[in-house]
Specification:
The complex is a heterodimer of chains A (about 425) and B (about 140). Chain A is α+β, with helices and mostly antiparallel strands and about 425 residues long. Chain A has 13 helices and 14 strands. Among the domains of chain A are: about 140 residues, Alpha-Beta Plaits (2-Layer Sandwich), CATH 3.30.70; about 150 residues, DNA polymerase, Y-family, little finger domain (Dna Ligase, domain 1, 2-Layer Sandwich), CATH 3.30.1490. Chain B is an alpha+beta fold and about 140 residues long. Chain B is about 20% helix and about 30% strand. A seven-stranded antiparallel sheet of chain B has the order 1-2-7-3-4-5-6, with no helix packed on it. Classes of the chains: A alpha+beta (about 425), B alpha+beta (about 140).
Chain lengths: ~425, ~140
């Protein structure tokens, strides 16, 4: 017997995390903005119905939001990760095997469960009652088909949030009405290429016979997605957490920045954040890469983009070494007389901390340095992030700190911000 | 930890080393076995972590049972029964009330006699968040 998988996807996840503590917003349009209130990253169905699109810049939709009384929130990631953990831990109690695919999606193994669709309904009911956010489930034999089933469950109300594409007829019907862009991993760019070849629906794509042509326009991944729609597993369930191959942090400044000190502080802060994440996944990095974005003050509309990187002889996860390298990079590319808008740091060449290579002329992190990092990490874990910072990150940061005008309280992660109850 | 270093600092060289080291190690082994004997208020108050939320009481409608600044432990996985204290939102306001079933329908009671019961009808904009299963209070 072939496998039975289900994809659980939280509906408009960030919006519904906000609604959990604002039940009066149920049935009303809600949007959540990205870091720095740049653009919309989560939309409730009511907000979509108003014509607001994903990734729409906030300044473009602001007027509409005011006119239609859309509830606008800045992103509150400590709340969203808390609710996400609750959802995933609830699922772990209900299914033997699962893959956490993103903050709001998980693939569940429902093999050997007698009536999987009925069980999926129970999962939905339990998650919604216990955690309090609405979810949809799509059942099928491959991840690609699960995605399609989930799309159906969300779009067509008659499914009540649980759709199954286990049978051939159900697959034929659903894929025929599914636009090619909506397929998992296709999107707008690849979708356009397929449309040029006359492939309009998911079904057209599945039944397209010329495998070579697909391979040539979409590479191997395209062929794998096609197989998934045919019920052939290309992407098996991965229970084990995959370490990231690259870690980055970047942000648009709250306001334009003109001095080197502020830019350096932002670079150091990003470098500190990525190095923390690096240690969390027990990796070390070989390269530090930084970039800065600016508007040129003297030549209007001319944007300025510079990047630079530093390569370590021996890979490291030490925050101070990484910050030092990032600031050395900044020295190479910094120019005065430009208004800086954005900066970012990425770590690449990641290796396992336990089995990395050694350079000839550079020592690896000493036990003493490693201990220091461990102590810093645990202080920041127990006392809250940014409790202990390298001085290079600056102490006040009001020059470039983020705009978060509409942020809700940290309801689930700070004793002083618990929701109040009369 | 390297116990020999400790001994060397305590006992001067040349002195016969007593059998102390091994005894200490043995004791530490026992202590490890009993680590779980520390009681945790968290596991006592929170039976289902994923479904449990904390809220802060304000106002004195539920006094003397619930005082302002008390932390309410709400477990959404517990089934709501009449007679229970619940957190709910009524007409956009988050309240903590005792849910009472009356002949006419549901009614929200306050512990404080100064507050009158609120009756609920089908048109009320009511959303029940969950039952209060515990109360945490710090005395300062």
């Amino acid at each position: 017997m072939s496998s039975t998988l289900a994809l659980l996807d939280c509906d408009s996840f960030f919006c519904n995390c906000e609604r959990l503590f604002h039940p009066e917003l149920r049935g009303r349009p809600v949007i959540v903005l990205s870091n720095n209130d740049g653009c919309a990253i989560s939309l409730s169905k009511e907000a979509k119905a108003l014509g607001i699109e994903m990734a729409a810049p906030f300044f473009k939709i602001r007027e509409l939001c005011e006119k239609k009384q859309v509830a606008v929130f800045s992103s509150n990631f400590s709340l969203y990760t808390n609710i996400s953990t609750r959802v995933m831990n609830t699922l772990k109690k209900l299914v033997p095997r699962l893959e956490i695919y993103s903050v709001d999606e998980a693939f569940l193994d429902l093999a050997h469960i007698p009536n999987p669709t009925e069980y999926a309904r129970q999962i939905k009911a339990i998650v919604e009652r216990h955690v309090g956010v609405p979810v949809s489930l799509g059942l099928a034999t491959t991840k690609g088909l699960c995605k399609a089933a989930c799309f159906l469950a969300k779009r067509d109300r008659t499914y009540q949030g649980v759709a199954s594409l286990m049978s051939q007829e159900a697959q034929d019907q659903a894929l025929a009405i599914m636009p090619i862009e909506k397929i998992w991993g296709i999107g707008k760019g690849r979708g356009l290429k397929l449309r040029l070849s006359g492939i309009k629906s998911a079904k057209d794509f599945r039944d397209y016979k010329n495998d070579r042509h697909i391979q040539s326009i979409l590479t191997k991944v395209g062929r794998q997605i096609q197989d998934e729609l045919r019920g052939i597993v290309s992407f098996p369930l991965q229970e084990i957490y995959q370490k990231k191959k690259e870690i980055m942090s970047s942000r648009t400044f709250g306001q334009a920045v003109y001095d080197k000190k502020s830019v350096a502080e932002s670079i150091a802060t990003h470098a500190f954040e990525v190095s923390q994440e690096l240690r969390q996944q027990e990796s070390v990095c070989q390269e530090v890469y930084i970039y800065i974005h600016a508007n040129n003050l003297y030549q209007e509309n001319q944007s300025y983009y510079q990047s630079s990187f530093w390569r370590f002889e021996t890979p490291t996860s030490n925050s101070f070494k990484i910050i030092d390298a990032a600031l050395r990079c900044l020295n190479k590319i910094y120019q005065s007389g430009v208004e800086y808008r954005k900066s970012g740091v990425a770590l690449t060449g990641l290796q396992d901390a336990s089995e990395h290579s050694l350079g000839l002329f550079e020592a690896s992190d000493t036990p003493r340095q490693q201990n220091l990092m461990q102590v810093m990490d645990s202080i920041n874990f127990f006392q809250g992030p940014r409790t202990l910072l390298p001085m290079a990150c600056g102490v006040d940061n009001k020059e470039w700190r983020m705009n978060r005008k509409f942020k809700s309280p940290r309801y689930t992660s700070d004793w002083s911000e618990l929701p109040k109850c009369m | 930890m390297d116990w020999t270093v400790l001994h060397d600092s305590v006992f001067s060289p040349g002195q016969a080393r007593p059998f102390l080291g091994d005894v200490a190690c043995g004791l530490f082994g026992i202590a490890e076995d009993y680590e779980e004997a520390f009681l945790s208020l968290d596991t006592f108050m929170v039976k289902n972590k994923e479904a449990t939320y904390f809220l802060r009481a304000s106002g004195n409608s539920m006094a003397p049972l619930i005082m302002p600044q008390d932390i309410l432990v709400v477990d959404r996985s517990v089934k709501i029964c009449p007679g229970q204290i619940v957190v709910l939102t009524l007409e956009g306001e988050r309240l903590c009330k005792r849910l009472i079933k009356e002949s006419v329908g549901l009614c929200l009671h306050s512990e404080n006699p100064k507050f009158r019961p609120i009756s609920i009808n089908s048109e009320s904009d009511l959303f029940i968040f969950g039952p209060v299963v515990g109360l945490v209070r710090q005395l300062r």
